[in-house]
Sequence to fold (478 residues):
Amino acid sequence: MHAVIAQTLLGLFAAVVLSSNALAEQVQVAVAANFTAPLQAIAAEFEKDTGHSVVASFGATGQLYAQIQNGAPFEVFFSADESTPAKLDSEGLGVSGSRFTYAVGTLVLWSAKPGYLDGSDAVLKANQYKHLAIANPQAAPYGLAATEVLDQLGLKAAVKGKLVEGQSISQAHQFVATGNAELGFVALSQVYKDGQLSSGSAWIVPAQMHTPIKQDALILKKGEHNRAAAALTEYLKGEKAAQIIKAYGYQL
Amino acid sequence: MPLSKADFAAVLLTLELASLTTLLLLLIGTPIAWWLARTQSKWKSPIGAIVALPLVLPPTVIGFYLLLSMGPHGVIGQLSQSLGLGTLTFTFTGLLIGSVFYSLPFVVQPLQNAFEALGRRPLEAAATLRAGPWDAFFTVVLPLAKPGFITAAILGFAHTVGEFGVVLMIGGNIPGKTQVASVQIYNHVEAMQYAQAHWLAGGMLVFSFIVLLALYSGRSSKRVWQ
Fold:
């Protein structure tokens, strides 16, 4: 009798475990470096709410594009621009109709030194610093936006020889955070939390000074039949994700 | 024109960096290797281990600590600033220091092997002929250890040409100053300029093969170098 009960319980237990496994899937995502912190926060909430799990790889948009093109196992791509997901879509690597703008990025001129920047472009114009860090404009949309701002301010010639390039926005941030560059153009999301600057000093670049950094996401062909991929993109359009995204300084 | 101006600049910079690194390493590495080959000191093993560290450490570890220590608050950074040199990240000098450390074992170890293989007898013979230590070094040790020096120079040079991670982390990708060939290849790949990446990458492949071919054929017929 006892043995029968035990067996039944075991069977039930196994059924529960198996069915929950069958429902919860894993989604592998490629994420532009600037969206690292918000995505981690969103993924934690998403995992709690849905039971699905997220495995994320972070890098420069251009680098992730090359990896996806060459068969990387990513199922959803969170780009730092609009054009890269559009290109993947036209190359047949994306699920058509799944593309949407999940955030609009904000560019910020940032220094690790408190009080170094005064909320304006004065320090940039005074040109007394030694190194100005940006992300590689050919691979990272925030780097491209930074060069547009420098053009707009007429400082292109002045910064020549002072410009140091990180391969992604993370490396540009690293150069500034370690003090090797006095200041640099980074994503507001990297230095901003809960509606305020988390350290150092900054000038939040007015949005009209560069092409809007519309960041698009796309479900990739490899994620076409993964329910977790669809669930994650839906989750990003929801209210909870929107709050997190805004708290990191993005527009929606 | 398969190579752009920036590509040529990157190749030249790479050769310059590798040559200077090799020269510095022969100057620094020779006394270290000599000491390691001769000493009975209890410090032999720890110093030998430190010299060999770059063999096993990922370039990210070396690059990360160089970035911190060369920065304005780091040990090297404070020293270079007090000497009026400013900080060394994003400079050619900074890359040179990084490369010397990164390629150190590739020069010291072949030299140490060559010195150990010499034994004491040639020097004792030189001493009985009243050769001073410097005289003995230049007229006895140097000619006998010549294959070791050639191996060390080739490996040091080639390894510096192949350097990537350290440069990426402390260089800042500045054309003509820190943008070496390996980084330039990475730039082309990132920017999806695969044709240009091929020209540089293919050139690098051929160059590396020729260097190693010279090294191995030289080893199998040592007479060539003696």
Residues 5-39+47-225 of chain B form a domain with the MetI-like fold fold (CATH 1.10.3720.10). Chain B touches chain A through 22 residues (CB under 8 Å). The CA atoms of residues 14 and 85 of chain B lie 23 Å apart.
